[in-house]
């Protein structure tokens, strides 16, 4: 290793994100080098003279695992969190939405004037008057410091002195040297050249000697720890760096965010508010921050299409449910470990941004501004799904959770018939024209959910074998039987078993939809629409052996809480949005929160 007095910084490109509009001056500290860390790999010059050797320490600890989530609105494993309305949010709360959760490169821009800033210092990095874009790359930086090597000894001896040093408030770092079969102990942390810390380091070393923590043979090394992050901001051929997340604000209040994750292009979309690029877990996230009410302009039309379902009272009910869910996400900081409140997907609520806004939906948001649903003074978990199939579900039918008093199953009022009692196979068989899932195409469900009030599908034996093999993660051979073991009060399947030549496999509640998958018109396996179904074998007339299976089902979604097409049906019958909400969320209050 070459000896030199200047700071050596190792930059490793870890990912890229580009941004388009946000100027939140809140400080975000750079990721520090770990203190008290134990290194796992080292490159050093053991025989280098004091004050000249550089030691590169690579700690073994890394970012935590990515957070997992369900696949549908409000499906966060059934936890019915409730937040006290008394803990009031500030008027007109702002929400941070992860519009891109994971990316290697994100493109954000503005069609108007814009300013790009370092979020921590508010320093202007770039600006423009007539549109443009920047790309923010995430770099990993090796941070270097002078540290005093006080010993290289046995594990127990080092542990004893390390504990004594930490008890006196000293920064510590250890590193095992395989060639010498000993562990180095470093104390202190001072900036390396070109900073002039000689006097301070001399005083510090003398203090350690007086405390019995260092000997007169102790000496200083420059130790380099990778792990800090730097954001590289590029506009064309220009490039600047920031140790803080980068925000971009547009003069017209509209930004664009898109990008790339590996070889996959992430479409560019327009959003109100501001945009931010920041490290999220082990990657980069593109974040849109804006007022909660403006966020709802982009949520409501994606959750209840105003063209297919223009009934204003139903749209208002959807707006209140979405606002309640969003405000709960803000107060609980639901996705805080990712750097934002909610995702823009069915993991939380679908948020399409500015281009998806519609006058009908926006009018519903404005007409209910600040209104939320509460139960016993606390925000409810405002779960909703598209089509119940005639009867909604108790929350514990879908999720492994304690019963929530306001999430009880009720007869629906959607365009199909309501179910006053648990349905039977004969009821489903008697339906005049159930939709065939075999003919279903991408986008069908968004355009007209009511078509899937009743549906059916048939698997060949080969298809069923492939579906259950994928679930079991092993070849299962023929599927000999599919048995429903338990149903909930609404008739939804709570437990199911698949009896195969390789053994019996079981699944429960709403997860059944991802184990018993159907094959759509593209030949792609897709999650079953709901757990409100009956399944029966198809048999060879001569041998009576099963040759496949047929399912009769109803509804689309987990069925808990508000039924969106049911809300439309109630609105068509003259019910107000308050009446709709109180029908699906039992015993709630509906009132303005801000």
Give an account of the 3D structure.
It is a single chain. This protein is an alpha+beta fold. Among the domains are: 11-16 and 35-62 and 139-229, no CATH class; 427-554, no CATH class. 19% of the residues lie in helices and 36% in strands. Strands 1, 2, 3, 6, 9, 10, 11, 12, 13, 15 and 16 form an eleven-stranded mixed sheet that branches. Strand 25 (479-487) and strand 26 (493-500) form a beta hairpin. It is globular. The N and C termini lie far apart (62 Å).
Tell me, rounded to a whole number, the average pLDDT: 81
Helix count, DSSP H or I runs of 4 or more residues:
12
**Which oligomerization state do the chains in this entry correspond to?**
single chain
> How much beta, percentage-wise?
35-45%
- Say how many strands there are: 33
Query: What's the gyration radius in Å?
Result: 30 Å
Largest sheet: 11 strands, mixed
Write the layout of secondary structure elements.
Elements: E1 11-17, E2 39-43, E3 54-59, E4 83-84, E5 94-103, E6 105-110, E7 114-118, E8 124-128, E9 132-153, H1 155-167, E10 172-177, E11 182-190, H2 198-210, E12 219-235, E13 238-242, E14 246-250, E15 254-261, E16 264-272, E17 274-280, E18 283-291, H3 292-303, H4 312-332, E19 342-343, H5 359-367, E20 371-375, E21 378-379, E22 384-385, H6 395-398, H7 425-429, E23 435-436, H8 444-447, E24 454-460, H9 461-472, E25 479-487, E26 493-500, E27 503-508, H10 512-515, E28 518-519, E29 525-526, E30 533-539, E31 546-554, E32 562-563, H11 564-572, H12 577-584, E33 589-592
Helix pairs in contact: 3-4, 3-5, 4-5, 4-11, 4-12
């Amino acid at each position: 290793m070459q000896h030199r007095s200047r700071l050596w910084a190792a930059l490793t490109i870890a990912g890229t994100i580009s941004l388009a509009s946000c100027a939140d001056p809140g400080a975000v500290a750079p990721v520090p080098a770990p203190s008290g860390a134990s290194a796992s790999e080292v490159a050093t010059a053991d025989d280098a003279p004091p004050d000249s050797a550089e030691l590169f320490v690579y700690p073994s600890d890394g970012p935590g695992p990515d957070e997992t989530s369900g696949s549908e609105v409000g499906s966060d494993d059934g936890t019915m969190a409730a937040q006290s309305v008394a803990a009031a949010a500030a008027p007109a709360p702002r929400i941070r939405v992860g519009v891109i959760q994971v990316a290697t490169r994100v493109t954000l821009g503005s069609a108007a004037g814009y300013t790009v800033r370092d979020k921590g210092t508010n320093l202007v990095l770039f600006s423009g008057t007539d549109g443009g874009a920047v790309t923010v790359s995430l770099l990993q930086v090796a941070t270097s410091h002078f540290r005093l090597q006080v010993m290289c000894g046995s594990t127990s001896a080092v542990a004893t002195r390390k504990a004594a040093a930490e008890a006196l408030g000293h920064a510590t770092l250890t590193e095992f040297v395989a060639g010498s079969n000993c562990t180095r102990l470093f104390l202190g942390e001072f900036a390396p050249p070109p900073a002039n810390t000689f006097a301070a380091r001399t005083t510090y070393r003398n203090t350690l000697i007086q405390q019995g923590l260092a000997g007169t043979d102790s000496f200083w090394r420059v130790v380099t720890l990778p792990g800090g992050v730097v954001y590289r901001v590029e506009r064309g051929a220009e490039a600047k760096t920031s140790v803080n997340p980068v925000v971009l604000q547009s003069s017209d209040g509209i930004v664009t965010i898109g990008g790339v994750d590996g070889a996959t292009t992430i479409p560019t979309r327009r959003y109100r508010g501001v945009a931010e690029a920041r490290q999220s877990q082990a990657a980069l996230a593109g974040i849109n921050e804006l007022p909660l009410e403006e966020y709802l302009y982009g949520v409501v039309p994606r959750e209840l299409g105003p063209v297919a379902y223009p009934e204003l009272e139903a749209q208002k009910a959807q707006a209140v449910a979405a606002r309640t869910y969003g405000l709960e996400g803000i107060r609980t900081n639901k996705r805080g470990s990712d750097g934002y409140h909610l995702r823009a997907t069915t993991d939380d609520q679908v948020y399409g941004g500015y281009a998806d806004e519609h006058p009908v939906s926006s009018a519903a948001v404005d007409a209910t501004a600040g209104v939320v649903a509460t139960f016993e003074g606390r925000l409810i978990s405002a779960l909703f799904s598209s089509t119940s199939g005639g009867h909604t579900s108790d929350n514990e039918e879908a999720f492994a959770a304690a019963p929530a008093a306001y999430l009880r199953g009720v007869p629906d009022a959607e365009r199909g018939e309501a179910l006053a009692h648990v349905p039977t196979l004969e009821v489903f068989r008697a339906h005049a024209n159930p939709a065939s899932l075999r003919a279903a195409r991408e986008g069908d469900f968004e355009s007209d959910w009511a078509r899937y009030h009743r549906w059916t599908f048939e698997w060949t034996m080969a298809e069923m074998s492939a579906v259950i093999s994928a679930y079991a993660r092993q070849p299962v051979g023929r599927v000999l039987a599919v048995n429903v073991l338990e149903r909930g009060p609404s008739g939804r399947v709570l437990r199911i078993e698949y009896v195969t030549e390789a053994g019996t496999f079981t699944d429960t509640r709403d997860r059944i939809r991802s184990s018993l998958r159907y094959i759509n018109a593209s030949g792609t396996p897709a999650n079953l629409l709901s757990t409100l179904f009956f399944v029966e074998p198809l048999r060879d007339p001569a041998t009576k052996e099963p040759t496949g299976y047929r399912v009769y089902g109803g509804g689309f979604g987990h069925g808990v809480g508000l039924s969106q097409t049911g809300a439309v049906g109630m609105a068509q019958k003259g019910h107000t949005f308050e009446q709709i909400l109180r029908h699906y969320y039992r015993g709630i209050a509906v009132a303005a929160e801000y």
